[in-house]
Write a structure and sequence with these properties.
The complex is a heterotrimer of chains A (318), B (504) and C (152). With 318 residues, chain A is an alpha/beta fold. Helices cover 43% and strands 21% of the residues of chain A. Chain A has two domains: 190 residues, 3-Layer(aba) Sandwich (D-Maltodextrin-Binding Protein, domain 2); 98 residues, D-Maltodextrin-Binding Protein, domain 2. In chain A, helix 1 packs across helix 9 and helix 2 packs across helix 9. Chain B contains 22 helices and two strands. In chain B, helix 4 runs parallel beside helix 17, helix 5 runs antiparallel to helix 6 and helix 7 packs parallel to helix 22. In chain B, 66% of the residues are buried. With 152 residues, chain C is mainly alpha-helical. Chain C has two domains: 64 residues; 69 residues. Chain C is built from six helices and no strands. In chain C, 73% of the residues lie in helices and 0% in strands. The relative contact order of chain C is 0.09. The two termini of chain C are 46 Å apart. Classes of the chains: A alpha/beta (318), B mainly alpha (504), C mainly alpha (152). Chains B and C meet through helix 3, helix 9, helix 10, helix 18 and helix 19 of B and helix 2, helix 3, helix 4, helix 5 and helix 6 of C.
Chain lengths: 318, 504, 152
């Protein structure tokens, strides 16, 4: 713990000096266009809004968030590389979206087209039930699904998404059959769960944070328990090797100069290193991630292999 | 809740913010393509440096102003400035055409203020219990609600119901283009990757409603709107009188708007359409809806402004945004460190109550500013020479459609759809059924697919679709609004016949 | 008016053509749904396509039996309509190359010429051109700077 702390202070110290250094290079000297390829209100939007004031604080320039929804993000990503590549236009990217979408169909971009420069958090998968649900633990749900195959309905956001993949993978691991009901976005899927239209929800830890006492999480797909939910076990503890969720970061058009990519990566790294930012994210149910532009290639390759394998096993790719 | 919150909301800064918000919102809402969502999203960073309550008041004021502003272009240009104002075009534009544009704008203002007040009142007094409405609506209820909205096609297409239905089907087909909303298939793009994003609803609205007006405008030298000759008295009072006579319609439409605003999957456009449908169903025999009937404007405008207050109910109580602008505001709240939930209304709810009173103040401020801006907008549109009106509006459609998601292909789709829509309208296929199909199609599809999956899993498909009380009520209303006009028509004929007999 | 009276008794060709195109559209959709991998995304479009075909067939029958003489393009200058739509489309195509303002100037000029029925003289041309520049500059700055839309 102590070690971690000293590492953190080191990171902060270096981030501060980096910020000072980039300040000397006068980056950024104007506001940065930050395009979210989804509508407002989702996890991508909210985490970008969290970054916004910190960016302004640290660098004195605005981070201007705008929305470009369509095609589950594909509309935005397909156009990313034709945008101004001066380092002042960036776009949010999501995993597994940018891996699964181009693998399934021609959506106007490929995974390798996207130049991601920083991955800053992920929302771990979680099974969410209402507070008065008969499922007290994951075992209850599994037992019910075993006794009545297919009758356990679970809401989730869209198809071929993190939620959907998680459902298919978990069904396989636990050897059960549940019915996945796709909704338009996490908000709609949460509403269906709260309204008891379905028996449980494949959501994220953020749902647990937002809904508080109204819901109970049965398990979360993290290596260790989320600090906000010390009582909720991980899938690993319960014997299921599931860690993951939806990962989010930022990308720039592919022609953006390397030094600008580096500067952007450093800038967002500095925000991620800010204790106040980390606390706000954790309180929102997010889990932080620090993958900068240098480590991106390895990270992306690992994720890509993992998702392609999972999606193939799930029968989502043909 | 109490007077200290009212006092908090009444500070000079907050009043100034509310005034600025309402005026800016009204102007933004009146420009087709500029939506409340966008206006609120642009202003969010500014609010970070404000007190949370003031920030909320500003955002709420812009939102409510923008929903009202949509009525101007609906009435004066036949183009809903926001999707919420679709129903306003049905009667607003005919009124403007016959020279009653100023009256229509004033009526819209009164209706919007009334609806806004009812919505805010519901938010103030009944938010936690009403939020359960959002949860009671499952996939099937959304399916039936969208079918209720689609039933309006039958009564809208006065000339030819068949053509209306064909138009509705065309609209629903257009709504399928692109990546399917809840499954991952790409539909009807024929390999063109620019079509993956589908047909943007607001762009389609601009095209289908505004382009035909422009095409007709340039073809002949006639004036855009009829202008009354001579000096005319201010028509605020006349409008107020009309609004007072229709208080029952206003109240009903506002309640409909509030309830539909609470539903996260519906929104202002659906609220306006359902309220319009109900107003039409309960109309007196001498009222001609679709032909410049003030009650039509009142129904949609009071309903869509009521969705502002209604939409905040699930946003603040459940943390589930009722409408897209609510989603942006929810994000701003989270950044400010405000946690949503029922507790927001119990103990430390000072921010919420200050905000709600701010919403009241903004709604009240909408009365003078709305009438003033409305009068000015009317005068401008009427007096501006056609030579400059056409290119200015044409320019606005291009820049507005582009701004929705910064896409040139959306603009091209808008123009092509508009031109096709003009040809169709010349042969009796009106724009409104197509638009209804486009907006309600996705709601119907998602509701159907989800209900089918759940019903299939629980082994009770019939019960799923026809066994739920709310569904049955909506089905009953749908049948009623389809059958009632026929009965009414028969009765009117019979009365005419007996009158004719007695005259003999 | 003369046009419409002359049409009475003839078939409403426009409606017939449009309805046939709708049927074609329905058939194309029915073909397109066969390529989908997820059965959930097939149900709705195929249902709507059948509905569209069904309604369009009825429209054709109805219109054949009872043509509506009021349907038609009516009077009006075709070149003005074409100029308006063509200049707007041209603006879209020119936008990626020339930037936003020069491109939309094409649309603006097209609309201006299409809508002017009174004829031109030097003075009116200058006045309209100036007010056009003023309106465009106003809206451009509102969108570009106040609302932060990245116009090309």
């Amino acid at each position: 713990m102590l070690k971690l702390k000293s590492v953190k202070t080191f990171v902060i110290a270096s981030a501060v000096s980096l910020a000072a250094a980039t300040g000397a290079l006068a980056f950024p000297d104007k506001s940065i266009e930050y395009i979210i390829p989804f509508g407002p209100g989702g996890e991508s939007d909210i985490s970008a809004r969290f970054q916004q004031p910190f960016f302004k604080d640290k660098f004195g320039q605005d981070l201007v968030v705008s929305y470009k929804p369509g095609g589950g993000g594909a509309v935005g990503w397909a156009q990313l590389n034709s945008m101004t590549a001066d380092g002042y236009t960036i776009m949010g990217v999501n995993l597994p979206h940018i891996v699964i979408q181009p693998a399934q169909k021609d959506v106007g971009y490929t995974t390798d087209d996207i130049t991601t420069f920083y991955m800053f958090h992920y929302t771990p998968d979680a099974i969410v039930v209402t507070a008065d649900s008969p499922y007290q633990s994951l075992d209850d749900l599994i037992a019910d699904a075993k006794a009545n195959p297919g009758s356990v309905t679970m809401s989730g956001s869209g198809k071929a998404t993190a939620n959907h993949l998680a459902q298919i993978r978990f069904d396989k691991m636990a050897d059960i059959k549940t019915t996945y009901v796709p909704f338009k976005g996490t908000g709609a899927s949460t509403t269906a769960n709260l309204g008891k239209q379905v028996k449980a929800q494949w959501g994220y830890t953020t749902v647990g944070a937002a809904q508080g006492d109204a819901v109970r999480m049965l398990a979360v797909a993290m290596e260790e328990r989320h600090p906000l939910f010390p009582d909720v076990p991980t899938f690993k503890e319960l014997g299921f090797d599931m860690v993951g969720g939806a990962y989010r970061g930022m990308a720039a058009p592919k022609d953006t100069p390397a030094e600008m990519i580096k500067a952007l990566s450093d800038a967002f790294g500095a925000i991620n290193a800010d204790e106040a930012f980390r606390k706000q994210m954790l309180d929102g149910g997010f889990a932080l991630l620090d993958v900068d532009s240098a480590g991106m290639a390895d990270f992306m390759k690992a994720r890509k292999d993992e998702y392609i394998q999972a999606a193939t096993e799930a029968g989502l790719l043909n | 809740m109490g007077f200290e919150h009212l006092a908090n909301a009444l500070t000079l800064t907050n009043l100034a913010l509310a005034l600025f918000g309402v005026v800016a919102g009204t102007v933004i809402g009146s420009i087709p393509g500029l939506s409340a969502t966008m206006a609120v999203a642009v202003l969010v960073p500014i609010t970070f440096s404000m007190a949370p309550a003031s920030a909320l008041i500003l955002l709420g004021a812009i939102y409510t102003g923008a929903i009202y502003g949509g009525a101007y272009s609906a009435i004066l240009l036949n183009t809903p400035g926001t999707p919420s104002a679709i129903g306003t075009t049905f009667d607003g534009y005919p009124m403007a055409k016959r020279g009653d544009g100023d009256l229509a704008v004033a009526i819209a203002c009164y209706a919007s203020v009334f609806g806004g007040m009812i919505g805010a009142l519901a938010l103030l007094l009944l938010a936690p219990p009403l939020s359960s409405v959002a949860l009671a609506f499952g996939p099937v209820e959304y399916l039936w609600l969208s079918i209720f909205g689609l039933s309006l096609i039958a009564s809208l297409s006065t000339g030819n119901v068949l053509k209306g239905l064909a138009g509705g089907a065309l609209g629903m087909l257009l709504s399928c283009v692109g990546v399917a909303e809840i499954s991952a298939d790409i539909r009807l793009t024929f390999g063109v990757s620019t079509m993956i994003g589908g047909i943007e609803v607001v762009g389609a609205l601009i095209g289908l409603y505004c382009i035909p007006v422009l095409i007709d405008l340039v073809a002949t030298p006639e004036r855009h709107l009829k202008v009354e000759q001579g000096v005319r008295a201010v028509r605020f009072r006349e409008a107020a009188l009309i609004a007072w006579r229709s208080r029952l319609n206003l109240l009903r439409s506002s309640v409909i708007g509030t309830v539909i605003g609470i539903l996260p999957g519906a929104g202002g456009s659906v609220a306006g359409l359902v309220a319009y449908s109900e107003a039409k169903r309960t109309a007196r025999p001498d009222q001609k809806f679709g032909d410049g009937e003030p009650d039509g404007i009142m129904a949609t405008e009071s309903a869509n402004n009521a969705t502002v207050g209604g939409g905040f109910i699930p946003t603040l109580v459940l943390g589930i945004p009722g409408t897209p602008p609510d989603a942006v505001i929810l994000g701003a709240l989270l950044v400010q460190g405000v946690r949503t939930g029922p507790t927001l209304f119990d103990g430390g709810g000072s921010i919420v109550y200050t905000f709600i009173f701010g919403l009241f103040i903004a709604t009240i401020l909408m009365l003078p500013t709305g009438l003033l801006i409305g009068r000015y907008a009317y005068k401008t549109i009427v007096t501006i020479p056609k030579t400059i009106l056409v290119p200015a509006v044409g320019f606005m459609t291009i820049i507005g459609t582009f701004a929705i998601r910064n896409s040139i292909s959306d603009v091209i789709i808008m123009i092509v759809l508009g031109s096709v829509g003009w040809v169709l309208s010349r042969f009796g296929f009106a724009a409104s059924p197509i638009v209804l199909g486009l907006i309600l199609g996705p709601i119907a599809e998602q509701g159907f697919v989800q209900a089918w999956i759940i019903g299939d899993a629980t082994g009770n498909l019939t019960g799923m679709f026809f066994g739920r009380p709310i569904s049955l009520a909506i089905i009953a209303f749908t049948i009623l609004s389809l059958v009632y006009p026929i009965i009414q028509g028969r009765r009117a004929k019979r009365i005419l016949a007996t009158q004719a007999n007695s005259n003999d | 008016m003369i046009e419409t009276t002359a049409k009475t008794g003839r078939k409403d060709v426009g409606t017939l053509i449009i309805a046939s195109l709708f049927i074609g559209l329905g058939l194309i959709t029915l073909y397109d749904v066969t390529t989908y991998s997820d059965s959930d995304s097939v149900v709705f479009p195929s249902f709507v396509a059948y509905a569209l075909i069904f309604c369009s067939v009825l429209v054709i029958i109805y219109s054949w039996l009872k043509p509506n003489p009021h349907n038609g393009f009516g009077s009006g200058d075709w070149w003005r309509r074409f100029l308006l739509v063509a200049s707007m489309l041209a603006a879209c195509l020119a936008m990626p190359l020339s930037g936003f303002l020069p491109a939309t100037a094409i649309a603006f000029a097209g609309g201006l010429i299409a809508a002017r029925h009174e004829g031109w003289d030097g003075r009116s041309a200058i006045i309209f051109a100036l007010s056009g520049v003023f309106i465009m500059a106003g809206f451009y700055s509102l969108f570009r700077f106040a609302l932060g839309v990245p116009l090309p």
